[in-house]
Amino acid sequence: MSIAMRKMSQQFLSGVSVSKMDFAEVIYDLANSFFGESNQDTLLSLTVDHPLVAEYPLKVEYQQSFMRKLVKELEARGAEISGHIYERLVQLIQTRNGEKVFRHFMLDNGSVISVRESISIVSNGTTGLYIWQAAHVLINWCFKNNDMLKNSTVLELGSGVGLCGIAVSLLCNPLRYIFSDCHPAVMNALVENIKINSGIEGSNDDASLDLPPLNDRIMWSGKLSDSNIAIAHLPWEDIVEQQLAPALAPNYVIASDVVYDPGLFDPLAKTVKEFTTIGSQVILACTERNSGTLQEFLKKLDSLSLKVQEDAMPEASIIPVCNDWIVKIYRITNNY
Domain spanning 125-334 has what CATH number? Predict the structure, then answer.
């Protein structure tokens, strides 16, 4: 298998936009007059016929788009196209999405994370069932700061479908990782994704995650790699009004793409304040879709006497990042 085919396999499995894939790198191998058809079959086995896709399928429209682009590129080179490619394209055209679709992230350390997400960006009245780019940036930041997170307690706000938390648990070995969200559909998908990637069923009776004031909020707990993990129902308003921060006692609070709705800025900023007051350090990965919106949130943090530092963007060292949007990393502490 060539490096180009391995790269395309990683891009395909993780759902990278077909328009952003570099087909030029791989077409030479596929159009080769001697090995071309064999290489084409190999590429199928690494993409649409990959065992992960058979068990946890990608969105059908995405697979169709990939195959059409592949055929177009091969035809443009005048290559002899394997009959298997045409057969597979026809099969996909006749296929419809099932109830669930997935993406698979092959990390550079050899780990593979399979995550169920929504077919649509907005589903069940929430955007939390979709994987956003800031999560990729936050994963790379955590990997870069692995020594800091190791053996610590990490709380993630707005965990969504869980990609970031699963990656951090596998890569950084925190002692305890607490996923949190509040939307029922998101919570159910989060539980499913952690079970898929942990290989165990877990239970909410795990003594290592016994948090008496919060036990009625824990939907699931168990282990992922060497980390004790829990999934908690934690609306931001409850964290503030019920003073839950001391019970959670995280060393680090992390979140990605939670700064987008001005209507949520007040409870989010107050939640950040609650945790910094008990000594937690808060790390936010924020997509700058609108600079005015982001600045409004930063001003709210400043009004609460919080110290905000922008961290350098990490290299995409463990998971690829598409530069469709600017993502900024902020480290927030109390402004003593």
Answer: 3.40.50.150
